[in-house]
Design goal:
Layout: E1 9-12, H1 18-29, E2 33-38, H2 42-54, E3 59-63, H3 69-83, E4 88-91, H4 107-134, E5 139-144, H5 157-177, E6 182-189, H6 204-210, H7 222-233, E7 244-247
Length: 259
């Protein structure tokens, strides 16, 4: 039986990261070819390439700083030169927060976070939309956000603002692109075992402590994000657009407990 995205081309930004690599492999298992984007970690991108090709997928590795409009355009040009068309865009750039309260944050720090976490998504979405319209429409956009698109965290205003803005970017695009039959959805992860989790990734005791506030009492795995992304990119999800799908072990349901 053919895979859910058999023969499709998926451009996944941040493919050298935990979630990006996990998603690339799940797409490859279902027959997709992958454009592997990275910012700095060429070695990580090459590791993803090797794993995808072992699964039978074709790959192209592209480097770009998605904060820069011109570099995003070049990235798409290189991907299209390799494959001719791109069917799926998965925006997965995740710069994190500078970890400062607003009163202590510089304008440069704020601007850098927004350019990576919001402008990069905008630049990629815009070029993808123009490309898909040239192809007659259809296509899938999946924006990776976070539970923090809804839940704020003190000391993370830059990250929270970027994720919240992407939420409404996605919802607006869902309306704008419905006539083109381009689906646009968010995946909003909670705690996922990637290097972003620091010591919890390697230390079972630290991980157990961090997961106590999660009803499922565990962290998610990158492949779980990938399986959800494959579904949202497939024809099975044709009637889903403008949604934020939270994958967090019930963490969102904990808000307000004990009030």
């Amino acid at each position: 039986m053919a895979g859910k995205v058999q023969g499709k081309v998926a451009l996944i930004t941040g493919s050298d990261s935990g979630i990006g690599q996990g998603s690339a492999l799940e797409f490859a298992k279902e027959g997709a070819n992958i454009v592997i984007h990275y910012l700095k970690d060429r070695e990580g991108a090459e590791t993803t390439r090797r794993h995808v090709e072992e699964l039978g997928g074709k790959t192209a590795v592209v480097q770009a700083d998605c904060r820069d409009e011109a570099q995003v355009e070049r990235m798409f040009d290189e991907a299209l030169a390799e494959f001719g068309a791109i069917d799926i865009l998965m925006n997965n750039e995740n710069p994190g927060s500078v970890g400062k309260e607003v009163a202590e944050m510089s304008t440069e720090e704020w601007d850098n976070s927004l350019r990576a976490g919001l402008y990069g998504y905008f630049f990629c979405c815009r070029r993808f939309i123009r490309h898909r319209r040239e192809q007659g429409g259809r296509g899938k956009i999946i924006n990776v956000t976070s539970v923090h698109e809804t839940i704020p965290t003190a000391g993370s205003a830059d990250y929270d603002a970027a994720k919240g803005a992407v939420r409404n970017l996605t919802r607006t695009l869902a309306l704008e692109l419905a006539p083109d039959k381009i689906n646009v959805n968010n995946i909003a992860p909670g705690m996922i075992l990637t290097p972003m989790q620091g010591e919890a990734l390697y230390d079972p005791r630290a991980r157990e402590e961090k997961t106590q506030h999660i009803p499922w009492k565990r962290a998610g795995e990158p492949w779980e994000i990938g399986r959800l992304a494959v579904y949202l990119a497939s024809d099975d999800a044709d009637f889903i657009t403008g949604a934020s799908v939270f994958i967090d072990g019930g963490q969102m349901m904990q808000q307000g407990q004990g009030a």
